[in-house]
Amino acid sequence: MSVAASHSPQIARRWPEPRAALTLIKPHTWFPPMWAFGCGAVSSGVSPSGHWGLIALGVLLAGPVVCGMSQAANDWCDRHVDAINEPHRPIPSGRIPGRWGLWIALAMTALAFVLAVPLGTWGFGATCLAIAAAWAYSAEPVRAKKSGIWGPGLCGLAYETLPWITGAAILAGGAPSGAVLIIAVLYGLGAHGIMTLNDFKAVEGDRAMGLASLPVTLGPDRAARVACWVMAVPQVIVVALLIAWDQTSHALLIIALLAIQLAAMRVLLRNPMGKAMWYQGMGILFYISGMMIAAFALRGIA
């Protein structure tokens, strides 16, 4: 066999490359929903003692299974876009050959339904919503990611709000309090800005394939400003609510974290295309830290 043939995945490969299969489900994306589920568990005010099994199952489901499935589904539905933006990805590179990307996503969808059963009505219902959101985001005929408004919004709510509410409901054994619901929704809305920044890396392919992300429709400068406002405003509202609920010390900590984010946003706005990924790696850390602080504050609200 020639050297060229031995390195041609389209000719030689019938089965997915194991490392490529792991890359397909993107372990680095699992953290946000796992963290949000943890925030929900904390905000419920219920002691984790005696609930560690449910917590572990919820974290596993939110991250590796459902989020991993959503990444596989997205890569399958985006394989033509990725061939332009990132041809090295598992599917366009041929390391995941044929229709294996779709089969992996469908198998993980089925696994999610099975694992959700022990989590009860709230856990199973939330899993159904998360699965529906994942496929609606990526797949036709909905393909919410075609919109720079609805796509990031759906993604933010599915990554942050839904697992937060689920974690709180599973530990509380019922519907979360109104305060928990409000804070979870606010952080999910703020995540719209985070998802918008993620679109900066795919501007060329999105434009070529007709995906109306905000960096495509507004241009990088305006899209970055919108993303910053969308991330900051919900946190300001969270601070105001915590102060109103007599959780001032927690509010002050979130103010400090927001100040760091605002400083980083100034750097981002000077060079959106060059700094969008930098901000995702640095500024978002302070956003999610504020989430956990807010979760602890909710424990003190009657």
Shape: globular
| Strand count | 0
- The SSE string, one letter per element, is HHHHHHHHHHHHHHHH
The CATH architecture can be given as Orthogonal Bundle
- The chain-level structural class is mainly alpha
Query: Oligomeric state of the chains?
Result: single chain
Helix tally? 16
Estimate the helix proportion, in percent: over 70%
Share of residues in strands: under 5%
What does this structure look like?
By secondary structure, this protein is mainly alpha-helical. The protein has one domain: Farnesyl Diphosphate Synthase. The protein has helices at 3-6, 9-12, 18-24, 31-43, 52-77, 79-85, 90-93, 100-116, 120-138, 150-172, 178-198, 203-209, 214-217, 220-244, 248-270, 272-299. Helix 4 packs parallel to helix 16 (272-299) and helix 11 packs antiparallel against helix 14 (220-244). The relative contact order is 0.12.
Per-chain topology:
Layout: H1 3-6, H2 9-12, H3 18-24, H4 31-43, H5 52-77, H6 79-85, H7 90-93, H8 100-116, H9 120-138, H10 150-172, H11 178-198, H12 203-209, H13 214-217, H14 220-244, H15 248-270, H16 272-299
Which features characterize this protein?
302 residues, single chain, mainly alpha, 16 helices, disordered N terminus, Farnesyl Diphosphate Synthase
Short description:
This protein is mainly alpha-helical and about 300 residues long. It is about 75% helix and about 0% strand.
